[in-house]
Amino acid sequence: MTLSFKATRDSRVENSSTLWDCKSTRRIPMMKSTPGSVLFRWVLQKIRFDRDLKWRTGVEIVPIQSTSSNGFRITAPALEEAFQLAQACNLKVKGLLVTNPSNPLGTTLSRKELDLLVNFINKKGIHLISDEIYAGTVFGPAKFVSIMEVLQKKILANTGIRNRVHMVYSLSKDMGLPGFRVGAIYSNDQSVVSAATKMSSFGLVSSQTQCLLSAMLSDKKFTKKYVAENKKRLKSRHAMLVRGLKMAGISCLESNSGLFCWMDARHLLRSQTLEAEMELWKKIRDVVRLNISPGSSCHCVEPGWFRVCFANMSEETLNLAIQRLKTSVDTISFGKDSNGFSHKSTENLITKYSVSKWAFPLSRYNER
Ligand SMILES: Cc1ncc(COP(=O)(O)O)c(C=O)c1O
């Protein structure tokens, strides 16, 4: 594949990657964990990791906290704090899980952060799982660096660390093929590869899918062009959303990848609490009729951040969504009155939207 995994071809290790049906992120914890053990994760993680990782394995997840004060970057004290917290809860720490690029932030980990992670797991003797499913969405300016690239450049003789770093990937995001259910695990640990190979028999990729993908991915010219065009379009969509939100007085965390923006709506909250965040989320859902994800669903402890997806809709729909948000911010005074919202202006907003084409056919249907 002509995606960004240049460093993953390690000639010293054979069979170090294995292909299987998706949810690759679930597999390594399943193979490497026992109930009671713990996996850290970078606090801002994709919404469904709790479901993907905890339910079947019995592992506990201890979030590593990060906040807007440093652009939600990973720091050494935050890593150490999470480790200490896990130990204080009598949990045996098995590994650290990160997504790079991040869902929900839409940012790539810097080389400094990646170094920090490798040094940390080296010191603690634990595993590192890097979920790089958005690697091909990086539209700049900062470049994507795979954990395997960092590992290759480091002098880590006799640490055994190479066997403790695993990378997961799938075609769902970069190639826009979530329905194909094709993912991969890259690991130098033969026990991981062997267990993965055995488990893959429960979720084999169909021959037809393999045949189609093999033709598609071996066409280097096509994949290169596809990924480049995808990045170009994501960049333009991202700029469109950021510009639109800015006009509505809302800023976003500076980002360079992913299919979403991390929107800062702290100023729209009635109070700086997670309850107020849920209140705002419900208003955005019920009144503005947009479904965005509250930060708390990604374990963000700082209220007022929301993940806004921009890639799974037409440009026209995105424009409409921006317009709705802009109008609602202008019209209703989020959080300015004691109830959080002005009823009068909310009614105005509903009346205004009801006459438009995109007014609520479903809610009208429900009222019958
Ligand atoms: C960071 C991350 N990892 C893994 C997945 C799972 O993707 P899939 O199972 O569709 O390949 C997602 C999907 O949202 C994701 O955001």
Keywords:
11 strands, alpha/beta, four-stranded antiparallel β-sheet, binds pyridoxal-5'-phosphate, single chain, seven-stranded mixed β-sheet, disordered N terminus, Aspartate Aminotransferase, domain 1, 368 residues, Aspartate Aminotransferase, domain 2, 2 domains
Q: What this model shows, in words?
A:
41% of the residues lie in helices and 14% in strands. The protein is of the alpha/beta class and 368 residues long. The model is unreliable at 1-20 and 335-368 (pLDDT under 50). The chain has helices at 24-32, 49-57, 76-88, 111-124, 147-153, 190-199, 207-217, 220-247, 274-286, 315-331, 343-354, 361-367; strands spanning 17-20, 37-42, 60-64, 92-99, 127-131, 165-170, 183-187, 251-252, 260-264, 293-294, 305-309. It contains twelve helices and eleven strands. The longest helix has 28 residues, at 220-247. It has a seven-stranded mixed beta sheet with strand order 1-7-6-5-4-2-3, sandwiched between helices. A four-stranded antiparallel beta sheet has the order 8-9-11-10. The relative contact order is 0.12. It binds pyridoxal-5'-phosphate. Residues 22-23, 25, 46, 99, 103, 131, 133, 170, 172, 178, 183 line the site of pyridoxal-5'-phosphate. Residues 49-325 form the Aminotransferase class I/classII large domain. Belongs to the class-I pyridoxal-phosphate-dependent aminotransferase family. GO terms for molecular function: 1-aminocyclopropane-1-carboxylate synthase activity; pyridoxal phosphate binding; transaminase activity.
